[in-house]
């Protein structure tokens, strides 16, 4: 499958590299306002293909997106000193207002995969600007947060995180909801598995994991300025699921008609991903605390999108 990536900075380039490593795409075109950067990233990644999977990767223009199955949107602007969050959102919305029509003019059948922060709001913006069906505008959402949750649970239980089924719901941000009551291993609820492993998940352990998942981005940003490996891997996984028509469950962000009495809000839920994008959405069975937390997260995101001007 051919994949376009608009925005060849750390996130876009790392996603391209991860796609090459996973064999998720056989053709990748990088587009950036800084053409020299896009060319350098493409050349650098191309040089890794003898050690990974064969792929054609190059820098190009919007015209080169013709016949792309997925276009990743990882472009955006940085926050200015003294600028409010809504002002930043308005400027990023303007960036998308330029990019998305240019993408769809040459790749009208592409699935849009949003990676620009604030993720859920920018996914909502992309859906509104594009006018595409909800299933074809996907935000990476809490795919990364869910991976962090699984990794930390795996470490605590001393098992592979690939054996852990656990999801983070709602906002890709501070109000995200760790779905503890739905976490499981080998069909066992996570708490029962922890007892069998003699590694109980008491209140202190749960609080530690919750904090580590919720604050992971801040910790990484404090250390190196930004995150890109985790999200790059997550974007590659979503693209692979589309390319392979896998019908795999991933926690991604998309427009949702109604969740916990909040209508028309864009946030992450477990969704089935296949060749057409989002095939279906699962509504999780939550305990009372999780329901309240998810409603709070949805209300925050709803308020943020209502303040936007497009």
Task: Provide an overview of this structure.
The chain has 310 residues and is α/β, with parallel strands linked by helices. Helices cover 44% and strands 21% of the residues. It contains 10 helices and 14 strands. Helix 1 links the parallel strand 1 (2-6) and strand 2 (27-31). Helix 1 packs parallel to helix 2, helix 1 (10-22) crosses helix 9 (229-243) and helix 5 (143-157) packs antiparallel against helix 7 (203-214). The two termini are 32 Å apart. The relative contact order is 0.14.
Reading side by side through the largest sheet, how are the strands ordered? 3-2-1-4-5-6
- Number of helical segments? 10
Secondary-structure element string: EHEHEEHEHEHEEEEEHHHHEEEH
User: N- to C-terminal separation?
Assistant: 32 Å
Average pLDDT works out at 94
Overall strand count: 14
- Biggest sheet statistics: 6 strands, parallel
Contiguous uncertain segments of 5+ residues:
none
Query: Residue share in helices?
Result: 40-55%
Work out the radius of gyration.
Answer: 19 Å
| Proportion of residues in β-strands | 15-25%
What labels describe this entry?
single chain, 310 residues, alpha/beta, six-stranded parallel beta sheet, three-stranded antiparallel beta sheet, 14 strands, globular
Short recap of the structure:
Helix content is 44%, strand content 21%. With 310 residues, the protein is an alpha/beta fold.
Task: Describe the secondary structure blueprint for this structure.
Elements: E1 2-6, H1 10-22, E2 27-31, H2 35-46, E3 56-59, E4 70-73, H3 85-106, E5 111-114, H4 119-130, E6 137-139, H5 143-157, E7 164-165, E8 168-169, E9 177-178, E10 184-185, E11 188-189, H6 190-196, H7 203-214, H8 216-224, H9 229-243, E12 248-259, E13 262-274, E14 277-281, H10 288-306
Parallel strand pairs: 1-2, 1-4, 2-3, 4-5, 5-6
Antiparallel strand pairs: 7-10, 8-9, 10-11, 12-13, 13-14
Helix pairs in contact: 1-2, 1-9, 3-4, 5-7
